[in-house]
């Protein structure tokens, strides 16, 4: 089940609630039972990155979509160089 973050509009209290997708969103702050809350958008606490079981175990032949880490590092290096050059041109 996903964890949702909420923030009280009046007191600023932030809290997390584990809810099903089908559950109604929380509407009232738990600390005073009367103020309204808003749902916050936050990043997940994990990141699926790189080659793993999903990329390598269930795909075959040309369907595999594995990125070569050497190529990935080179493209990241080129991006940094381009950003640095653009920043110098602006000055």
What is this entry, summarized?
The chain has about 90 residues and is of the alpha+beta class. The chain has two helices and three strands. The protein has a three-stranded antiparallel beta sheet with strand order 2-1-3, with no helix packed on it.
Produce the secondary structure layout.
Layout: E1 3-8, E2 14-18, E3 37-40, H1 53-57, H2 69-90
How would you describe the overall organization of this protein?
The protein is α+β, with helices and mostly antiparallel strands. The chain has a domain at 3-40. 30% of the residues lie in helices and 16% in strands. The protein has 2 helices and 3 strands, in the order βββαα. It has helices spanning 53-57, 69-90, and strands at residues 3-8, 14-18, 37-40. A 3-stranded antiparallel beta sheet has the order 2-1-3, with no helix packed on it. The protein is flat, with a radius of gyration of 22 Å. The relative contact order is 0.12.
């Amino acid at each position: 089940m996903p964890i949702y973050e909420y923030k009280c509009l009046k007191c600023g209290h932030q809290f997390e609630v584990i809810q099903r997708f089908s559950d109604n969103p929380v509407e009232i702050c738990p600390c005073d039972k009367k103020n309204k809350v808003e749902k916050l958008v936050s990043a997940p606490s994990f990141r699926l990155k790189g080659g793993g079981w999903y990329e390598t175990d269930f795909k075959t032949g040309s369907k595999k979509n594995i990125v070569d880490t050497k190529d990935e590092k080179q493209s990241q290096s080129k991006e940094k160089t381009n950003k640095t050059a653009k920043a110098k041109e602006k000055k």
